Amino acid sequence: xxxxxxxxxxxxxxxxxxxxxxxxxxxxxxxxxxxxxxxxxxxxxxxxxxxxxxxxxxxxxxxxxxxxxxxxxxxxxxxxxxxxxxxxxxxxxxxxxxxxxxxxxxxxxxxxxxxxxxxxxxxxxxxxxxxxxxxxxxxxxxxxxxxxxxxxxxxxxxxxxxxxxxxxxxxxxxxxxxxxxxxxxxxxxxxxxxxxx
Length: 197
Ligand code: HEM
Hints:
Elements: H1 23-32, H2 37-51, H3 54-66, H4 69-72, H5 85-104, H6 109-121, H7 148-159, H8 166-187
The structure holds protoporphyrin IX containing FE (HEM).
Protoporphyrin IX containing FE (HEM) binds near residues 121 and 180.
């Protein structure tokens, strides 16, 4: 990635803990999700299509979170009780990078370790720490995989905006659904009792 430094984006940094799940575990999960080399090809096809649409996509995703009271609470400031604009803005920059990383589909150890980190950032050990936010201590588990559906449903029109065939749009969309579900499963690790992930 040659992106200018995004505050708090630490993929590939030595300071990151090693993921408690392995690349072999990842392969087994991919198999279970029917996630194949074809999905990798379609994710990578989506990269160029989405590249200049990140801000528009984030407007839609943030619009969904902002207009859903059950979700926006996870960004609220403890003192004011209102959504914390600085916190939302800081996370948004990393979310943009995540679109590119998801479309890159490079499943190496750095990527795996960053999945563990993202899970921690949704939970008590690390939520709020990266941006020094004063907000609620965790995102409740039940919403994590559920957000796969709005994220990928609202992405689909953006996949269709650059002239790809309807069949290719379907395949890119299916690959995104699998990838986001896969990631939300990996991010679940900190929520699960020891030995049960
Ligand atoms: C952080 C994606 C579920 C709230 C993030 C980040 C990404 C992301 C990419 C930034 C990671 C980084 O620091 O590099 C997703 C995806 C989800 C999901 C793809 C489900 C498929 C949720 C849900 C909520 C939520 C359901 C509830 C509103 C947050 C919050 C942060 C965050 C509050 C900031 C955490 C911190 O303090 O560092 N998410 N997320 N996320 N997400 Fe999610």
